[in-house]
Amino acid sequence: MMGLRAREVFHMFRSLVLSLTLLGAPGVAHEAPKQAAPTKEAEKAEAFFGHEELVRQFKLHETGCKKGNPMECFNLGLAYAQGVGVARDEARAATFFKKACDKDYLDACNNLGIAYAQGVGVKKDPKQALTLFEKSCKADDAKGCFNAGQAYASGLGVEKDPARAVTAFEKACGRGHADGCFSLGIAYANGNGVNKDPARAATLLSQACDAGNMASCNSVGVSYMAGNGVTRDMKRAVALFEKACDANVAGGCLNLGIAHKQGNGVTKNPERSRELIQKACGLGLAPACQALGTAPKAP
C-alpha cells in the first residue's frame, strides 16, 4: 500500500509543476530579474567554447535574424534567455521568440507561450499562452500539443477541460512525446477525461517509460506489482522501479525499497531496503521519510 501511495504523491507533485518547463525546447528562461546571472547552461557553454566563440555565434544569429531567418531569431532568443554570448535579457528573448513564432517557427511559439504562462519577459497572460500552444499543436508539433494538454488539465487560460486535455495528450503521444504518453496514461488510469482503462494505461505508461519518462517507469512498475491492467510480474516491477530509482525518481526508490523489504520480486534485503528508502527521503518524498521516522530534506 505504501508503494501505491508513493505513486499517487509523485503524480501529484508532477501535476503541480506545470510541465510547461520547456519539455524538449531548449533554453527557456526561468523567472528572474532583468540582467540576471547567466544560466548554468550558459556557464557550461562558455567553459566549453570560450567567451569569444559564443559572442561570435551570437553575432551570427543576430545577422541571420535581421535577414529574416526565423531559426536564427529563435536562436537569438535562446541566447538572450540563457545569457549565452550576451547579457541575459528575458524581455529581449521574448521579443525574438515572437519574431520567430510570427514566421511559424514552432519551438519559438512554445517558448513564447511559456513566457506568457510564467510572466517571464512579458506580462503574464495565460490565455495568450494557450493560444500559442494551440497554434503549435494545430501544426502537429508534439510539444505544443503537450503544453496545450497541460493547460486544459490545469485550467491555464481556460476552464479545466479533462476531455480536451486527453485529446491534446493523445496527439502529443502519437508524435512520440514521452511526457504526453505519461499524461495520457495517467488519464486512463484515473478515468480523467476518458473512460478508466487500466490496460490502456499500462500500455501508454510502458510507451512513455521506453521513450525516457522515468516517472512512467515507476508507475507501470506499480501496475506490474499489483497486476493492474497487466499480468502480475513482480520481477518486472522491480526492474522498472530500479530504472526509475537510478534516474532519481523518488517513488521508484521507495517502491524498490519496499520490494526489498518484503521480498517481492527480489530476495529480501533489509539493509538494501533502508538504503533505497533513505534515497527516496533524500529526494524529498514525505512517505519515505515517514517510513524512516525522519523529516524530508528541503527541495
TrEMBL record:
Signal sequence extent: 1-31
Identification of the protein by name: Sel1 repeat family protein
One Pfam family cited in the UniProt record for this chain: Sel1
Keywords: Signal
Xref: InterPro entries: Sel1-like, Sel1_AlgK, TPR-like_helical_dom_sf
